UniProtKB/TrEMBL annotation:
Coiled-coil regions listed in the entry: none
Domain of life: Bacteria
Pfam families (alphabetical): KbaA
Stated name of the protein: KinB-signaling pathway activation protein
UniProt keyword list: Membrane, Transmembrane, Transmembrane helix
Chain segments annotated as transmembrane: 35-59, 71-90, 102-122, 131-150, 162-182
SMART domains hit by this protein: KbaA
Protein species of origin: Effusibacillus consociatus
Amino acid sequence: MTLKRFGFMVLTTVAVGMLVGVLHSLTDIFANIRLFFGFEVGGFVSATALMGFWAYLTLNFIVKGFLPQRLWHWVQAFLILVVYVDMIYLRYITAGQGTGSVWPYVGFATWPLVIALIVAYVKSKVSGKKAFIPAVFFLYVFTTIEWYVALKFGSATGETGLTIMIGTILLACNSYLILLLGRIIRE
């Protein structure tokens, strides 16, 4: 990868994050926020997405060095399941000590997974069938890791609008990055 391609990837990812943040502030779907705040949050969250992307690429490179690819795919699938259960059950237990409805936690765990599955399907159509599990793994597990602080804040304060906003910005940036990766490497 050349410095020009790297710069393109960073700048366009930040632009995607800012655009999604501005769209959130203009539409007021999940939270009533100012325009500049949406712009600012989009930029900062896109930087988090970029760091998570490089962390995933580093992890993937290291693990592929000592695990067979088939085993690494199974490990990734298992970790997707673990994160899904964690997003529902463990957050439900720790947030309300097991009282109240579990459905909000199911929603917070499922919508990112559905988006990850759709984007991974598109990625596998472009890059081949072997790209599906790694794409879902990055889009779901790493997005959840990056989203962790907002999830904790949202469940502690009941401020779900900002939590959803940050999650959608992360998913948009991570989806853009995973789909852009093949194009940048091929050029």
